[in-house]
Amino acid sequence: MKTNAPTPSPTHPHIFSFAQHDNHFLLDGQPFQIRSGELHPARIPAEYWLHRIQMTRAMGMNTIALYVMWNYHETSPGVFDFQSENRDIETFIRLCQSEAMWVLLRPGPYVCAEWDLGGIPSYMLRYPDITLRTGSATDPRYMSAVARYIDELIPRVKPLMACNGGPILMIQIENEFGSYGCNPDYLEDIRQLWLRGGIDGPFYTEDGIAQLQQNRSNVTGGAIALSNGNAAQIAAARQAFPGVPVMAGEVYLGWLTHWGDATLQGTAADISGTLDAFMQHNLSFNLYVIHGGTSFGFYAGANVDPDSGAYQPDITSYDYAAPITEQGVATPKYLQYREIIARYLPTPLPDVPEPIAMLERIGNDALMPERYTSVWDNLPAALPAAQTVDPQPFEAYGQAFGFALYRKKLRDYRGGALNLVDVHDYATVFVGEQYAGGVSRAPMPDRCAQPLDVVHDAPLALPFDLSSHEGAVNLDILVEGMGRVNYGHAMIDRKGILGPVSLQDAMGESEVLKEWEVFLLPMSPGYIANLRDVCSNPRKAGLFFRATVSLDTVGDTYLDMSHWTKGMVWVNGRNLGRYWNLGPQRRLYCPAPWLREGENVVTIFDLHQIEAKPVELARTLS
């Protein structure tokens, strides 16, 4: 049976609305099935936006859902960027329109998305008593920032609404708030911000059906989208909320992966039966995610295990076992789902676009980096002493991402046990020039190939016998901030050292260490570009390595970091993201637009290695 849903092109004003009695969506007064696939512009190079949109359309979708990551566009209060790199969401939405695709806009302010702090800017955490995801009556500082963000979006979004000739059908209010709390006033506050700006909807909310029913987290006049929804849940929600249109808002085609997981998650998922039921009964849905892309740089988020309370940082890749791979290739499941959808459509689907070309072989497909410099030879000026009597988190110093070095001069040093229980999230510790061990907030699996002396939730024994010191020695704690928690009630997740650091001597006496030097190391593009080519101690970990490669032509590739330990990779100054030998991710995706014909520079910062290892080039994530 072919669906009777119309598929007009969004090239002139249209009226998208809700049926009054039968829970359907209407486009220009006719029943309309939303067949949506989720894409995140922030995770896709702008040069590939059109290709991924075309891939989505060729799988049978007529709509694209997209998150807007607030913290990707407002990195400091009042300073917005909607133009650089892949931040021009207006262009992305116009590209959707050029391909006759409608849009579901999901601007948050909170989005979850396995993205740092769920998209909320980390500068909010500079307030010690901040409350997130709450209305003006509870915390006006948060809601004032939300208002500034939405006010910035409104003039960009308003011309793109379907009623104004654009492709946007609906705007989502917040995200999965029923999993967080019960505060209808907060959701209404957000809706009112859009209304105040002259956008009167349509709006919708997203939640699991149990959370929706428990916390009634829908909004006045808005539609309902169900997380992990299926045909039966849509029927149940229609019964519980008569007269309200319902769709499956996040149908999971795979799943997220944490560092330390045994394998990449979600590969066993198969939604064929669910998808067939949607098509048979003309039900609206959004596939999360049809293509995941990559959490480049420092933007990958984290979770807290609900049972153990353990911190679980997300890997860099957001491949998600989606039907379109991280590199944009159609998987067998893509073809399987496309065939199911095509059976119900009155016209043939467009051809599947050709995949993006991969990089041709270069010699033996391996780079051999060389030691370049060290973080110790590239320290910025220390912060003023008044700010560093006690170590503070990154956010207190105005830093969002990266690393920070906390240094304390120890007088009459005699070894001992270092209590560093409030490190977020990973630290390497040095006494003088000697590596003393590491501290990881995330548990360390037994199978891990991590170097010795990395502890979790335990004191770190410091060495007593040093090669040379005269009664005083520097204690250096180099802290990496990994992803901020993006889901649940542990989202106040500051980075750096969050509490007192104490040193216990052999007699069991403990001293809280005061008067630190703090060096901020956000590892920005400017910092990487201006590294000094000097390495005063090549045996002290915290080294940068470099390789150059000359290319006659460019293409996508993966850098295989299997021989390395833990760190970051930049290609021509662009941050590919984090690698860690915990796995299961071993390779980092490098898109062709970040390469160039001629000389290319690969920069590696590794927290542990003092010897360079090869970096092989690969064609797939695994």
From TrEMBL:
Domain Beta-galactosidase galactose-binding, residue spans: 543-600
Keywords per UniProt: Glycosidase, Hydrolase
Keyword Metal-binding on entry: no
EC numbers: 3.2.1.23
Enzymatic reactions: Hydrolysis of terminal non-reducing beta-D-galactose residues in beta-D-galactosides
GO biological process assignments: carbohydrate metabolic process
Domain Beta-galactosidase 1-like first all-beta residue range list: 391-521
GO molecular function, one term: beta-galactosidase activity
Name of a matching Pfam family: BetaGal_ABD_1
Keyword Hydrolase tagged: yes
Catalytic residues of the enzyme: E176 (proton donor), E250 (nucleophile)
Record domain Glycoside hydrolase 35 catalytic: where: 25-343
Family per record: Belongs to the glycosyl hydrolase 35 family.
Protein name: Beta-galactosidase
Organism: Trinickia violacea
